[in-house]
Write a structure and sequence with these properties.
single chain; alpha+beta; Cytochrome p450; five-stranded mixed beta sheet; three-stranded antiparallel beta sheet; globular; binds protoporphyrin IX containing FE; binds 2-acetamido-2-deoxy-beta-D-glucopyranose; Cyt_P450; Cyt_P450_sf; heme
Length: about 475
C-alpha cells in the first residue's frame, strides 16, 4: 500500500482522537448547572423570597426542580439543596469545599474575627474554646444560676399581658451572659444589654455608615461593647483568678487571642444564642397552648420530678440528672425545632468548582442547605405539618433532623440551649398557666419565623 494514501488517514485519525479527547475533557469541565431559573439579574429572585412566606418559595421550587436547584438571591447566584444526602455532602463530607459566608454588613456588625466566618486552624481553635465552655461538664455547674434567672423572669411576668418573644429574649440574653461571664454577669448586664440592643438594630438595616443612620449608631454601640469587654478582661488579668466560663476559656494563657478577637466572639455568641433560643421558647409556648393534651403530659412529667425530690428529701433545685428525666418535654423541644425550623437554611460558598450528582456547582456560588425542607419532607416525617412530639420516640435517621446543623460549623451551644429551655419549662408548667391573647394563627417572618406579634399572652400563677 502506498504511503501517501495512509498518511492522510493517519492524520485524520489523529485529528479525530485529539478532537474527541478535547471534547471529553471540556465536557467534564462543563457539567450542566442544576435546573432552575435565575430571575432578573441582581434583583434575582430576592423579591419573591421576601414577598411571601420563604418556605412556600423553597417548597414550590423543590417540587418543580427536585432537591438540587439553582436560583439567584441577594444578587448572588446560588444552589439550594434539600435532601439529607446533599446536606451531608455540603456540611460534613465535603465541608472543606464550602466555606461559611454572610452578607458583608453582618460581618462588620458581628466582627470579622468571629467564629462563624473563620476557617482552618483559627476556626478549630475557637471551636475548641467554645465547646470547652459549653460542654455538659461545664454547664452543669451553672444550672442553679439558670434556674434562678428563670424563676425571677417568670415571677416578674405574672399577671401581666406580655409579648412572649420579647420576654424570652431577656431570659436567653441573661443566660447567654451567664455562660460568657459567669456570676459577674449581673454587674455588667445593664450596660451590655443597652449596647447590644442598639447594635442589633443595625443587623438588618442598610449598611450606610454616616451619622444618624441605624448602621452608624450600631457600629458605635459595637465599639462600646468592645470597650466594656476590654475592661472586664483587664480586671480579670489583674485578679489572676481562674474562670471556667466562656470568657475564661478565651483568655487562656496559651491561646494568645487579642482583646478584639475575644470581643468579636463574645458578641458573636450572644448573637447566635439569644434570638434563636428565644424564638424556640416562644414556639413551644404556642404549641403547648394549642395542644392541651401535650401540655398535660409535660406538666405531669415535671410535677413528677418535684414529687420525687420531695419524697427523697432532696433540695428543691434541679440537677443535671433531673434534666435527663424529661423525655416527654425533650420530645416537645425536638418536635418544635422540627415544625418551626427557625433557621430554615444556612449559607455556604463553593471555594472551587464542585461536582455533585452530575451537576456543576461553580466556584463562588452560594450553596444553601434548606433544613426546613428536609424537616418538612413527607417521606421523612409523615404528615409533616402536624405537631406530634411522639414521632421522636423513634430516633431520626442521620442528616434528616438538623436543627443545630451538622459538621465543622454545627451549633456548639446546643446542650446549653436545650438545658435552659428545659429549666424554663419546668417552672412554667408546674407553677403557671397562660392564655394566648388575640388572634394567634398568623406567622411573621424576618429573620426568623415567629408567631404573629411575638405571641401576646397573659401569665397567671397557679393557685
Ligand atoms: C435552640 C437554639 C439554637 C439553634 C436552633 C441553633 C442553631 C444553630 C445552627 C443551625 C448552627 C450552624 C449554622 C451553620 O452551619 O451555618 C449554629 C451555629 C452556632 N451556634 Fe447555635 N443554635 C442555638 C442556640 C445557640 C446557643 C445557646 C449558643 C451559645 C451559647 C449558640 C452558639 C452557636 C455558635 C457559636 C455557632 C457557630 C459555630 C461555628 O461556626 O463553628 N447557639 N447554631
Ligand atoms: C459614623 O459616620 C461617620 C461619618 O461617615 C464616621 O466618620 C464615623 O466613623 C462613623 N461611626 C462609626 C462608629 O463607624
Ligand atoms: C451528621 O453527619 C454524620 C455523618 O453523616 C451522621 O453520622 C450524623 O448522624 C449527622 N448528624 C445529624 C444531627 O444528623
Amino acid at each position: 500500500m502506498e504511503l501517501h494514501f495512509l498518511l492522510p488517514l493517519f492524520a485524520s485519525l489523529l485529528f479525530v482522537f485529539v478532537f474527541l479527547k478535547k471534547f471529553i475533557q471540556s465536557n467534564n469541565r462543563r457539567l450542566p448547572l442544576p435546573p432552575g431559573t435565575m430571575g432578573w439579574p441582581y434583583v434575582g429572585e430576592t423579591f419573591h423570597l421576601y414577598s411571601q412566606n420563604p418556605n412556600v418559595f423553597f417548597a414550590s421550587k423543590q417540587k418543580r426542580y427536585g432537591s438540587v436547584f439553582k436560583t439567584h438571591i441577594l444578587g448572588c447566584p446560588c444552589v439550594m439543596i434539600s435532601s439529607p444526602e446533599a446536606a451531608k455532602f455540603v456540611l460534613v463530607t465535603k465541608a472543606h469545599l464550602f466555606k461559611p459566608t454572610f452578607p458583608a454588613s453582618k460581618e462588620r456588625m458581628l466582627g470579622k474575627q468571629a467564629i462563624f466566618f473563620s476557617q482552618g486552624q483559627y476556626h478549630t481553635q475557637l471551636r475548641r474554646l467554645v465547646l470547652r465552655a459549653f460542654m455538659p461538664e461545664s454547664i452543669k455547674s451553672i444550672i442553679s444560676n439558670i434556674e434562678s434567672i428563670a424563676q425571677h423572669s417568670l415571677h416578674s411576668l405574672q399577671g401581666r399581658l406580655i409579648t412572649t418573644f420579647q420576654e424570652m429574649k431577656t431570659y436567653t440574653f441573661n443566660v447567654a451572659l451567664l455562660s460568657i461571664l459567669g456570676e459577674e454577669e449581673v454587674l455588667y448586664r445593664g450596660d451590655l444589654k443597652r449596647c447590644y440592643y442598639i447594635l442589633e438594630q443595625g443587623y438588618n438595616s442598610m449598611p450606610i455608615n454616616v451619622p444618624g443612620t441605624f448602621f452608624n449608631k450600631s457600629m458605635k454601640a459595637r465599639k462600646e461593647l468592645a470597650r466594656i469587654l476590654a475592661k472586664i478582661i483587664s480586671t480579670r488579668r489583674q485578679m489572676k483568678m481562674e474562670h471556667n466560663d466562656l470568657l475564661g476559656s478565651f483568655m487562656g494563657d496559651k491561646e494568645c487571642l487579642s482583646d478584639q478577637q475575644i470581643a468579636d466572639n463574645v458578641i458573636g455568641v450572644i448573637f447566635a444564642a439569644r434570638d434563636t433560643t428565644a424564638s424556640v421558647l416562644t414556639w413551644i409556648i404556642k404549641y403547648l397552648g394549642d395542644n392541651p393534651s401535650v401540655l398535660k403530659a409535660v406538666t405531669d412529667e415535671q410535677e413528677a420530678i418535684i414529687r420525687e425530690k420531695e419524697k427523697c428529701g432532696e433540695e428543691q433545685c434541679l440537677s443535671w440528672a433531673d434534666t435527663k428525666k424529661m423525655p416527654i418535654t425533650s420530645r416537645v423541644i425536638q418536635e418544635t425545632l422540627r415544625v418551626a425550623s427557625i433557621l430554615s437554611f444556612t449559607f455556604r460558598e463553593a471555594v472551587e468548582d464542585v461536582e455533585y450528582e452530575g451537576y456543576l456547582i461553580p466556584k463562588g456560588w452560594k450553596v444553601l442547605p434548606l433544613f426546613r425542607n428536609i424537616h418538612h419532607s413527607p417521606e421523612i416525617f409523615p404528615d409533616p405539618e402536624k405537631f406530634d412530639p411522639s414521632r421522636f420516640e423513634v430516633v431520626p435517621k442521620p442528616n434528616t433532623f438538623m436543627p443545630f446543623g451538622n459538621g465543622t460549623h454545627s451549633c456548639p451551644g446546643n446542650e446549653l440551649a436545650k438545658l435552659e429551655i428545659l429549666i424554663f419549662l419546668h417552672h412554667l408548667t408546674t407553677k403557671y398557666r397562660w392564655s394566648m391573647v388575640g388572634s394567634n394563627s398568623g406567622i411573621q417572618y424576618g429573620p426568623f419565623a415567629l408567631p404573629q406579634n411575638g405571641l401576646p399572652i397573659r401569665l397567671i400563677r397557679k393557685s
